[in-house]
Write a structure and sequence with these properties.
The chain is an alpha+beta fold. Helix content is 32%, strand content 34%. The relative contact order is 0.15.
């Protein structure tokens, strides 16, 4: 068994929240793991979906720094999981396709760690926001909803496109088989008809 381990490091920067979105191909009979450092009492959210491959299913598990399994699901197409870190350290997120021997899977997953920093500093205080600040917060929340909707529709579009391309390939293969059979039958009928009309007359001998 081969386990391909990818260590994903996210830069914290000036915000208190950070995350990643990743789409990658998981080969058959393989397992890939990602690691994320999370501090104690920090909330993390992980979401994944199988875009293409086989029956659109994959095994997924999440372990804490001590190896304790926080989440484990078998052969699911999509799911999401949120948890509060009880320990500081590297958390492991693994996707396994070991139950499949011939089919690759394309998997999308996203992970968000921490709470988002307030857009306006005064939001942390017990004071009312002015009209400009309220408008900025409203626009910011609307843009987040737009980004989430775009991601959702991109995944649905990709899933539908892969399904349609698969059907198109099957139709083309079946059409080619049907055309081949028709040509064979046509050629066979031509030879049969020629054999019927080209029968030789029996030879008669006349003696004088």
């Amino acid at each position: 068994m081969q386990c391909l381990v990818f260590v994903v490091l996210f830069a914290l920067g000036v915000h208190s929240t950070y995350g990643v979105e990743l789409t990658y191909e998981l080969e058959d009979n393989s397992k890939q793991c990602f690691f994320q450092d999370i501090t104690k009492d920090t909330r993390a959210t992980m979401e994944y979906q199988v875009i293409s491959g086989g029956r659109y299913d994959v095994d997924c598990s999440i372990e804490d720094p001590d190896g304790l399994k926080l989440y484990s699901e078998k052969r699911k197409q999509y799911d999401s999981y949120a948890w509060d870190a009880q320990k500081t350290g590297a958390y492991q997120i693994c996707f396994s396709n070991e139950f499949s021997t011939i089919t690759h899977k394309v998997i999308y997953f996203s992970m968000i760690v921490g709470d988002e920093k307030p857009l306006v500093d005064t939001m942390d205080r017990a004071t009312a926001l002015n009209q400009m600040e309220t408008s900025c917060v409203t626009i910011h929340d609307g843009m987040k909803n737009v980004i989430a909707s775009q991601t959702h529709f991109r995944l649905r579009e990709s899933l539908g496109r892969v399904f349609a391309e698969g059907i198109n390939t099957r139709v083309q293969i079946w059409s080619a088989i049907q055309v081949t059979i028709m040509i064979i039958v046509m050629v066979g009928q031509v030879f049969v008809l020629r054999g019927l009309f080209n029968t030789k007359k029996p030879f008669t001998r006349t003696d004088t």
